[in-house]
Amino acid sequence: MIRNIKFLGIALILVGVLVPTLHFTKAKVDENKYIEVLEEKEEKQDYFAILEINEIHLKRELFPAYSKENHVDKNVLVHKMSTFPGSKESNIILAAHSGNGKNAFFKDLYLLEESDLITLYYQGVKWIYEIVDIEEQEKTGVLYLKEDYPQMITLITCTKGNSNTQTIYYGVLKESKSL
Asked: How far apart are CA 177 and CA 69, in angstroms?
């Protein structure tokens, strides 16, 4: 009896030490014996799209709106009101810092002109947008964004040389190509 209690005590100590170091995955097994991962203990921070602007040598991953990585201090921000291509109407709203810091991903946006191209790689499709309008708005905490086109992209950053305004670049879908 003492031997069993001693063994049980040692076993409980080992379980108490080992269990916190294990990585658990919540999974569902369907009738075909395939495993579908539902939720992992550690949150993955995977990007879901890539923004590319060849004219300014920019290529950045985009993270979902709910991701901790989706912040202007870390990456190009995907605004939570964005709607993505594949639906009848879409407007991808992206914002990033300009300036000189390491996270100033839109620092060269001021070099863009109307007719320059913006590419978005999303869901196995290359979406190509053409810049059709560039405007400045005062920094008031509220932006009034155009929604003049059914399929568009909007880029927002601080205006170069003017700390009181933001520059907004509007692009219209020109073409899409399956990858």
From this structure: 28
* Number of neighbouring beta carbons within 10 Å of residue 2: 6
Count CB-CB contacts under 10 A for residue 124: 7
Instruction: Using the CB atoms, write b or e for 24-43: b if 16+ within 10 Å.
Output: eeeeeeeeeeeeeeeeeeee
Cβ atoms 49, 86 nearer than 8 A: no
Show me where the domains of the chain are located. 2-40, 49-178
Q: Model confidence at 123, in pLDDT bands (50, 70, 90)?
A: very high
What is the residue-averaged pLDDT of the chain?
Answer: 83
Sole residue written with tokens 């921000």: 77
pTM: 0.74
Superfamily of 49-178 according to CATH: Sortase (2.40.260.10)
Q: Furthest-apart CA pair in the chain: how many Å?
A: 85
